[in-house]
User: Fold Porphobilinogen deaminase from Heliophilum fasciatum.
Amino acid sequence: MTEINRPIVIGTRDSALALWQTHWVLEQLQARFPEQRFEIKAIKTKGDKILDVALAKIGDKGLFTKELEVAMLEGEVDMAVHSLKDLPTQLPEGLTVGAMCIREDYRDVLIGRTARTLAELKPGARVGTASLRRKSQIWKVRPDLELLDIRGNLQTRMRKMEEQDLDGIILAAAGVLRLGWADKITQYIDEDVCLPAVGQGSVGIEIRDGDEAIARVVGALNHKDTADCITAERALMRTLEGGCQVPIGALGKLGEDDSLTLHGVVASLDGREICRDQVTGHRSEAADLGHRLADILIAKGAAEILKAVRQESCN
Ligand SMILES: NCc1[nH]cc(CCC(=O)O)c1CC(=O)O
Assistant:
């Protein structure tokens, strides 16, 4: 079946991970629409060009998505493939999420050089990680570790680990597995220790709002279980952020009788305070669960953390 009488253009960043994910999307779409022609167009984004500044300092909101979004609004590409966790909760006017694809392993992993697990790292070991979310949660179990900012795409981070002689780095399992580096992983970090980023492990496809033909094609890749969980996670994030960057971890998990449990954590900017809780409800009220958990976290102490975050990073 040919859906559209021209090639559909799939937009992507040009990092190895983005290209892997985009080729995966292309294969999945081609299998469902064998007669339709698809093309890939790779675009360099600001996030790919700035490699040396700690992400927390420049703020990563939209850093990896903006150029692609402009290309979509100008009709140069028909969709943009992202790691869903890099896609802001508030999209520019005229754009929407067309699919949340089936989730890969959502956990963070340790790639250890001098030890295999967090517990086995020597006192004061130096470990690379790019996110406050990871730092604050890891400090909770290993306050002695020296957690260093390490930026760049996955290849760059692996190289920096060697160059800077770090004891290990923490990355998302999904990216490492997609690049075929499963054998480098020395520990899958349990979600009880470290909640992942909102949307971690899922590929999100952004499309033009109101482009019905593209929405039908892309919608074929939406994975309902993944989408319900991540809808709850994104609602939590959107409520807590109020438009600025906050270190948040979240994980939605489906249970019996269509229940959905949403776990969430908010961390202070110095990473030394965290606030964590969970709510359970019916999966059909995923967004509402996100709002409820936000209220609970705020009542538990997240309000103080958020106030400080807004003073420092939101303007
Ligand atoms: N922030 C960069 C980024 N965006 C998506 C992934 C991995 C894939 C995923 O989490 O879905 C990564 C690398 C990492 O955090 O280790």
